[in-house]
Amino acid sequence: MKTSRFLFPLLVLLSGCSGGVQSALNAQGHSAVALKDLIIFIVLVCTAVWLAVVLVMAWALMRRHKRQEGEAAERKMTIAVSVAIVMTVLIVGVLTFASFLTTRSLYSGTDATVTIRVRAQQWWWQFIYDNADPSIAFQTANEFHIPVGKDVRLQLEAVDVIHSFWVPSLAGKQDNIPGRENVLTLRADKPGVYRGQCAEFCGLQHSHMAFLVVAEEEADYQRWAAQQRQAAVQPVSAEAAAGRDVFMSKPCAACHTVRGTQASGTSGPDLTHVGSRSTIAAGLLETTRGSLAAWIADPQTLKPGNNMPIVPLTSDELRQISAYMEGLK
Amino acid sequence: MKDLVVLDVSKLPLHGTGMASPTWWATCTFMLIEGMGFGLAIAVYFYLMSLAPQWPIGAPPPDLFAGACLTVLLVASIIPNILVSRWARRRELKKVKIGLLIMSFFGIVPLVFRIFEFPALNVSWDDNAYGSIVWTILGLHTTHILTDLVDTLVLTALMFSRHGDNTRRYGDVEDNCLYWNFVVIAWLPLYGCLYWVPRL
Amino acid sequence: MSSETARYTSLILPPGAWLMTTQLGQMLPYVDCLEKTHWTAFTAFAAVFLAAAGGLLGWKSYSAAASRTARFVSGFGIFFGCAIGFALLLQGAASLLLNECER
Amino acid sequence: MQEEQSGPPMDTDLDDRELESRLAKTWSTRPGFWGKIACVDHKVVARRYIFTAFVFLMLGGLLSLAMRLQLSQPEARFISPDRYNQIFTMHGTNMMFLFAVPVMEAMAAYLVPLMVGTRNIAFPRLNAFSYWIFLIGGLLLWLAFALDAAPDVGWFAYVPLSGPQYSPGKRTDLWAQMITFTELSALAVAVEVVVTVFKQRAPGMSLDRIPVLVWAMLVMSFLVILAMPAIMFGSSTLILDRLVGTQFYNPAEGGDALLWQHLFWFFGHPEVYIVFLPAVGMVSTILPAFVGRPLYGYMLLVMALITTGILSFGLWVHHMFTVGLPRLGESFFTASSMAIAVPAGIQIFCWLATLWAGKPVYKTPLLFILGFIFTFVMGGMTGVMVASVPFDTQVHDTYFVVAHFHYVLIGGAVFPLIAAIYYWFPKMTGRMMSERLGRWSFWLIFIGFHLTFFPMHILGLWGMPRRVYTYQPELPWASLNLFVSLSSLILASGFLIFFIDAIKSWRSGPPAGANPWNASTLEWATSSPPPPYNFRRIPVVSARDPFSPGNDELTVATGLRTDRREVLVTTIVEALPEARESSATDSVWPFWAAIATSIMLIWSIFSPWAVVWGSIPIAVALIGWFWPKGEAEDES
Q1: Other Cβ atoms within 10 Å of A151 Cβ, number
Q2: Is residue C99 within 8 angstroms of chain A, CB to CB?
Q3: What CATH number is attached to the domain comprising B132?
Q4: Is C90 on the interface with A (CB under 8 A)?
Q5: Which one of A106, A128, A161 terminates a domain?
Q6: Count of domains in chain C?
């Protein structure tokens, strides 16, 4: 590898920089690692072929011309071209086999312990942890947790238009298509927070449709799941309590659910534990009281065209409602 | 650059027919385009059928009468059509004129039955995907008949005019006959799709 | 078979076989997955055979050809047999290596 | 016998000058505005076509600069998301439908009749009609953009985003109907090219003597004929879904979202080869002229062309690897997509062999061709990468793919096209382009191109999706994006110099002479620019190179009439003379037919009844077009 770093500047870029939390080259999951190996293999082979072609071209341009004419020269050329064609066939064959073998290695059985329904919609992600016992089912938005080292089965659905579920550090993408159901199996090898983003153009705010996958040890995951199953916590401060009342009396409750209250709208994300998520508005802003206030005050400036309307609030109401939201851990 | 004459083509005819005629080839290419269109329509029909839990979706299969009459008429029209083509090749102006009148008739009458075919589908185009594809297929083929009918009518008028007795016009008549054969042959798989596949 | 027929058969056979498998490859895996059959693999290799036969016919008509242009056309048959046969072999490999149910 | 003596005037015993003046009288276009409108000379129509397509290229390029401005920094607010979506949709639609395909068709319409040695394209009136339809379709789309009503659903217009529910208004209808316009014009030219190549080749130009470029244009035309009906079916059913409530794409009523993708890509993938195969023909024609030896591997190249054309119909699902089809079926498309690398490789090897055996003369066209080989092979390699199902699941819909297809389309088609413009400009205008500006434009375009598009591969692997109007500062994409945006200015300046060169040379370039490159294909056997009748006498061909540049003699046929537009029809395989066919005279009816068709198509966006009432003027115009006027061309 060390010598190849001098030879292939492309490889330096590939192996030297992993490209952050949302990169196919920063592979942290079973599938992504297999894909990264395939990517590096094919890129190396192709780079070699490209270099060979360019070198032959350069040689052809620079060689001193003897201007061989006649049949001998022609026959030599025919042999060279034939060899090149045979090489092409062999290389293409090898790459195709590599591709098929990788596809085969990605196929995992149905021994997934966790199944999550991923409902993509303009322009946010709904993650539903279904259970036969509805009392322990719960849902979250734009952020979900998975146990490390376990296969997680994702059922991909779309509510409105086509979206595509993609966490490059964990696996390749798979589309969410209205009227169809796709399945993607994920497995994170290391604990961490991985970013994903909608990969299929889905309208105005396609750019702001991100989510986070939090992979954690089994015990942490179970603790998180148990906490998510709880109904919303009661506000602890007077300000937050006032915020709850504003929330219930304004149109907010018509679109959002806060379990344990009368708010049970379903067109927007479930906010029961919104304070426990690290971002709001599908990865747009970090969850702080300030960003919550900014978002609620004017969602259309921060994310033009999204489906959350501007609800007229006084500055007191805005402060109270943000406090309430932040407290929904 | 100097010309070195090596070939004299002055004895060649001023217009070729069949494979010697560019128009004949253009007719064939247009048939390829339209054939591709019909092929796609059939493919879409079967594609939608493969997705549907039952086929036809939410409707009884189409009633047979109008479609059967039209099909019989179209198939029968092949005979005069071939005759017209033969007369045109032999440049028999009078027979060609009569033949074109007959073919105009064979273009109009199927359209009358076609009017009754649409309600016989027992489904509206906006009911479901089944309705959409059968209306589209029927609509496409109606356009097909209509365009050839207009073509035949104009050609008939032309043959009765002073421009009629001309090798080029006879070639046009032959190409028109070729195209009508295509209209009829293209209908048969469409007919099978529309009327008999739902009965399988 | 006359060399004329062989020539045109060799032009049609390999592409035809390949178009067929490419299309069937979109339908048969569903059947294979449900019924545990191997129709996809079967059609892929049947098509390899057809393409090879096309190539051979082209070759036969090449040597039997009288005119320059006829040989030119026969050359296409041979080439189609090889190039499309290769594509079909790769399809065949896929049908052996991959599981029919995988989505 | 008597008839023959008093028969029509023939070219048999005329001296060259007298013959030329008589032919000029028969073939020339009448002066004045309506004369220009009525003109059916393939060279004039094709020149208009090429010019218009390059205007669209320039406009599309400006759109891409606007996108690069918006993406130069994270969360930039230069352009609103709505406008940005219109811009990238317009960029893709414009470049594919209004530039790439039309310009290649136009090159075919210009070059094919000259290269096969005939006097006009088959069905010249259809050719004129095709241009007017193309022009009106393009104007329609750009007018919509000017009115802030341009389509905003991507050039691929996936349903349900483009369906009635999620794309209200007329934007998407305009897109879908623009498709109808451009496909109509493309199909028309394809039919003309097929018939011209089949029936109007010079005597003796048997199948194995057809120039590679003509083969390429023939294969391209067949791809158009077989692929375009799919998109026309798709766009029409989309309009029906939106206008009259059919349910093709509505999953709730038995329709399917993937049906659209199948139809779109069944057209969309051959489309790439519709653009690329003519480029193969151009490279194969230009290269020999600058290395001073004939092309190596004529037969191999032609076979590779045709095989590529066939295989291009089995690649469409590789745009759909992530939609959830069975992996096994998808892998069949991996197989075909990988296998197509073999004919592509063969083409490259033939060109390398030609280079190897020849002595390169570094004129601008050759520079662009060397740049093409360098760049296109890279695009081919990334093509092999995205052909692999698992590889593609990581890079599909990312900037990696944006980089890949710009390598293939700009590197693989625009570089050869610019080479072709430098090469055939003298033929088209009678003037040479500047070698100095040509070199400047080559190096700026070449370097600017790689600096702009190579980093996009990395951005894609780093997880940057396509079609985003912005990205967030916490992602590590900002510096590369800024770099790309700055580099795009270099690329744009290269194109600017090319445009300046073309305009300057058109007006005041040095005269070219008949054969400035010492080439040996038939278009160089006549003057630059060619007279309206192309050739004084129809050439007769007896070898793959129809004439040798050193030789001052051209073997020709006589026996055509001079008082009417007459072309020679030959047999399909051996090109033996069959008939002396007339060629249509100038007519304003194609123009009126195009106007009537446009009114019907645009009206039908608003009301289905337009199809009924709008068809009547079309029928009238068509009857006017075809009704014999008792001219000499009517005789038989």
Answers
A1: 18
A2: yes
A3: 1.20.120.80
A4: yes
A5: A106
A6: 1
Nearest CA in chain D to C81: D307
A279: which strand partners?
A286
Q: Closest chain B residue to D623 measured between Cα atoms?
A: B154
Evaluate whether B49 touches D259 at the Cβ level (below 8 Å). no
Domain residue limits at B178: 20-199
Q: Is residue B65 part of a domain?
A: yes
**C30 CB within 8 Å of a chain A CB:** no
Mean pLDDT, residues A147-164 taken together: 94
Domains delineated in chain D: 41-584 (1.20.210.10)
For D435-469, the DSSP string reads HHHHHHHHHHHHHHHHHHHHHHHHHHHTTPBSS-S
Residue A17 — pLDDT band, cuts 50, 70, 90?
A: low
Asked if the structure places residue C84 within a domain, the reply is yes
Q: Is residue C36 part of a domain?
A: yes
Please give the tally of structural domains in chain A.
3
pLDDT at A106: 84
- For residue C53, the enclosing domain spans 3-97
Considering only CB atoms, C103 lies closest to which of A96, A104, A183, namely A183
Residue numbers of D between 187 and 216 with CB closer than 8 Å to B: 187, 190-191, 194-195, 198-200, 203
Q: Is residue C71 part of a domain?
A: yes
Q: Which of D307, D283, D336, D131 is nearest to D219 (CA)?
A: D307
Residue B8 counted as domain residue: no
Instruction: Give a yes or no: residue A150 inside a domain.
Output: yes
Total number of domains constituting chain B: 1
Q: Do residues B123 and B131 touch, judged by C-beta distance below 8 A? A: yes
CA distance A148 to B123: 54
pLDDT tens digits, one per residue of A267-295 = 999 999 999 999 999 999 999 999 999 99
Residues A141 and A199 in one domain: yes
pLDDT of residue A109: 60
Kindly indicate the confidence band of residue A131, based on its pLDDT and cuts at 50, 70 and 90: confident
What does C10-72 look like in DSSP terms, one character per residue? HHHHHHHHHHHHHHHTTTHHHHHHHHT--HHHHHHHHHHHHHHHHHHHHHHHHHH--SHHHHH
CA separation, residue A207 to residues A21, A329, D85 (Å): 17, 27, 11
Residues A45/A98, Cβ–Cβ less than 8 Å: no
What pLDDT, on the 0 to 100 scale, is given for residue A9?
A: 45
| pLDDT band of A65, cuts 50, 70, 90 | low
- D207, D313, D333 ranked by CB distance to C69: nearest: D207
Task: Give yes or no for a contact between D412 and D276, defined as CB atoms under 8 angstroms apart.
Answer: yes
Residues of C with Cβ-Cβ distance to D384 under 8 angstroms: none
Establish whether this prediction's ipTM goes over 0.85: yes
**In this complex, which chains have at least 3 CB pairs below 8 Å with chain D?**
A, B, C
Q: State the pLDDT at residue A11.
A: 43
Check residue A1 and give its pLDDT. Answer: 37
Nearest CA in chain D to C25: D329
Residue C8 lies in a domain: yes
A72-113 pLDDT tens trace: 888 889 999 999 999 999 999 999 999 999 998 887 666 788
Query: Mind telling me how many Å the CA of A56 is from chain C's nearest CA?
Result: 24
Residue A66's domain comprises 2-106
Residue A13 has pLDDT above 80, yes or no: no
Asked whether the beta carbons of A107 and A100 are under 8 A apart, the reply is no
Within chain D, which residues score under 50 in pLDDT?
Answer: 1-4
Does residue A66 belong to any structural domain of this protein?
yes
pLDDT of residue B157: 94
What's residue D630's pLDDT? 83
**Residues of chain B found within 8 Å of residue D538, distances taken between Cβ atoms:** 9
Question: pLDDT at position A10, please?
Answer: 46
Establish if A61 belongs to a structural domain. yes
Residues A18 and A94 in one domain: yes
B92-117 confidence digits (pLDDT tens):
999 999 999 999 999 999 999 999 99
Q: Which helix (H) or strand (E) holds A214?
A: strand A210-216
pLDDT confidence of residue D632: 84
Min CA distance, A100 vs chain C (Å)?
6
D527 and chain C: CB distance < 8 Å anywhere? no
